Automatic annotation (TrEMBL):
<feature type="binding site">
    <location>
        <position position="137"/>
    </location>
    <ligand>
        <name>carbamoyl phosphate</name>
    </ligand>
</feature>
<feature type="domain" description="Aspartate/ornithine carbamoyltransferase Asp/Orn-binding">
    <location>
        <begin position="161"/>
        <end position="308"/>
    </location>
</feature>
<dbReference type="InterPro" id="IPR036901">
    <property type="entry name" value="Asp/Orn_carbamoylTrfase_sf"/>
</dbReference>
<dbReference type="InterPro" id="IPR006131">
    <property type="entry name" value="Asp_carbamoyltransf_Asp/Orn-bd"/>
</dbReference>
<dbReference type="InterPro" id="IPR006132">
    <property type="entry name" value="Asp/Orn_carbamoyltranf_P-bd"/>
</dbReference>
<feature type="binding site">
    <location>
        <position position="55"/>
    </location>
    <ligand>
        <name>carbamoyl phosphate</name>
    </ligand>
</feature>
<comment type="function">
    <text>Catalyzes the condensation of carbamoyl phosphate and aspartate to form carbamoyl aspartate and inorganic phosphate, the committed step in the de novo pyrimidine nucleotide biosynthesis pathway.</text>
</comment>
<keyword id="KW-0808">Transferase</keyword>
<comment type="similarity">
    <text>Belongs to the aspartate/ornithine carbamoyltransferase superfamily. ATCase family.</text>
</comment>
<dbReference type="GO" id="GO:0004070">
    <property type="term" value="F:aspartate carbamoyltransferase activity"/>
</dbReference>
<dbReference type="InterPro" id="IPR002082">
    <property type="entry name" value="Asp_carbamoyltransf"/>
</dbReference>
<feature type="binding site">
    <location>
        <position position="134"/>
    </location>
    <ligand>
        <name>carbamoyl phosphate</name>
    </ligand>
</feature>
<feature type="binding site">
    <location>
        <position position="270"/>
    </location>
    <ligand>
        <name>carbamoyl phosphate</name>
    </ligand>
</feature>
<dbReference type="Pfam" id="PF02729">
    <property type="entry name" value="OTCace_N"/>
</dbReference>
<feature type="binding site">
    <location>
        <position position="104"/>
    </location>
    <ligand>
        <name>carbamoyl phosphate</name>
    </ligand>
</feature>
<comment type="subunit">
    <text>Heterododecamer (2C3:3R2) of six catalytic PyrB chains organized as two trimers (C3), and six regulatory PyrI chains organized as three dimers (R2).</text>
</comment>
<protein>
    <recommendedName>
        <fullName>Aspartate carbamoyltransferase</fullName>
        <ecNumber>2.1.3.2</ecNumber>
    </recommendedName>
</protein>
Amino acid sequence: MRHLLDTQTLAREDALRILDVAEDMADTQRREIKKLPTLRGKTVVNLFFEDSTRTRISFEAAAKRLSADVINFSAKGSSVSKGESLQDTAQTLQAMGADAVVIRHGASGAPRTLATSGWISAGVVNAGDGTHEHPTQALLDAFTIRKRRFGDDSRGRDLAGVKVTIVGDVLHSRVARSNVWLLTALGAEVTLVAPPTLVPQDVTGWPVEVLYDLDDAIAAGPDALMMLRIQLERMNAAYFPTEREYSRRWGLDARRLDALGVDSIVMHPGPMNRGLEISAEAADSPRSTVLEQVTNGVSVRMAALYLLLAGADAPTTETTAPAGTAKENTR
């Protein structure tokens, strides 16, 4: 695997391989000593042009648990704030010998530009670009759904027949886009629920059903209900009358939580706006996978970095790499 830029072009078998390697990584994280020497001598740069806490920390933890050296680069207070271009920044990282660059950027397509420009030879992982995609978030969501559904018998399984309903600010959500492509590639049935103003203008090419009533969507019996954060910072117009009105019509409250099927789970990519798109009762209920998603995120990002940087070369022994990892590269 050379880069991880999106889920729309990620082959089903490659997605399953990442999920299966993440299972192996999760097993190592239950040991007393969690660190693996697999990426010793490699340098991973977290290049964040947008603010982030959980994603940056998750990638940092993943790289360090694989024994990589980690450099955290924030655009604020750096030469970027003085006008340095992405090209100049990339060439600086190249000169420093970066082996992988994890990039979050406000411009859709920036990670692909970095990966295909020739400015840098490092592998590139998209940690979120504009309103385009956030592939590792979708992978950790799929991992979480699969784990809840199949438990320890998850390896090699897809999500055929699983019903996933994604609710909220789809218009601005790169998480929703990545989940649509990945979950459907794995066989899931995806439904979007949002106010008409928060549905992208043209979703006719998306393999989804679109509904506008959350109660109708819950009555259809989803296996997973994924609540999206309302991204007020990306909104420059009135997309709904008031926050109270949004919460009443599209928020997951106690009544809607009770209406979910007994085996349905509640998901949220975080950070949560409690009381807006999700109530505290729903966020903290046994159905909620919010904290599991955070935990699983480290394992999935360990798997992505492992396949990006070690794939064909790393020895597959118990002490240096996760069990069951194939020795060929994926494309």
